[in-house]
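Service request form, structural biology core

Requester: graduate student, group of Dr. S.
Request type: structure prediction, single chain
Budget code: on file
Notes: please return the result as structure tokens.

Sequence provided:
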Amino acid sequence: MKDNFSTRSDMYAKYRPTYPDELFLFLMAQVRNSESAWDCGTGNGQVAVQLASYFKHVYGTDISQSQLDNAVKLPNITYSKQPAEHTDIADRSFDLIVVAQAIHWFKFNEFYAEVKRTLKPDGILAVLGYGLISITPEVDIVVNKLYTDIIGPYWDKERGYIDENYQTIPFPFEEVECPQFVITQQWAVEHLVGYLETWSAVKHYQKQNGHNPVDLIKSELITAWGNVTERQITFPVLFRVGKMIN
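Core staff response, request fulfilled:
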């Protein structure tokens, strides 16, 4: 598993979007029990916090101590620095395992072996993510210019799994048919800029070239945004759910 998010993890906690409540309600309709859930690749604990409303105990793991240091602490959440593929978690521990915007960084075979070991026989695996942001046609053109033209060569190859909506990841489970969800929030243009600066390819570009590529499109972005304090932003949710194959 790669660690692209230890640098400025406070920004990640501040600017990354959260998943809709309806998605978690759907998941709760699939699980048989709500004793224990694992948020694997928890980062700053955004999903762990959402799961904590539904489960007696939530276990969040990540390889970035910096991310975990910025995670929201709740009495029923336990955070631990561990790789997704090899943990000290006991066999058959979880009713639900969630991976949010992280599975493309994992070693699939090793992680799935860990899922099958730690998931209860009637447990559920949910793989979540979100695709490219959409706001208005004018703003989207500028964001796509950054995404493709400026930092395109700096994306890790694993980013392709997100562009392919997680449909090309291996998924050796009995798949559950899922509804389509979207993330919708109200953001100011400053929040959008902060979010773009959390992109891993932005960090790769900055490290190699010595300057922030978001600065190259910032004035164009503000012009495209227009004289509006906030706009509705939308992310398509990538969502696959599976059960153990008997």
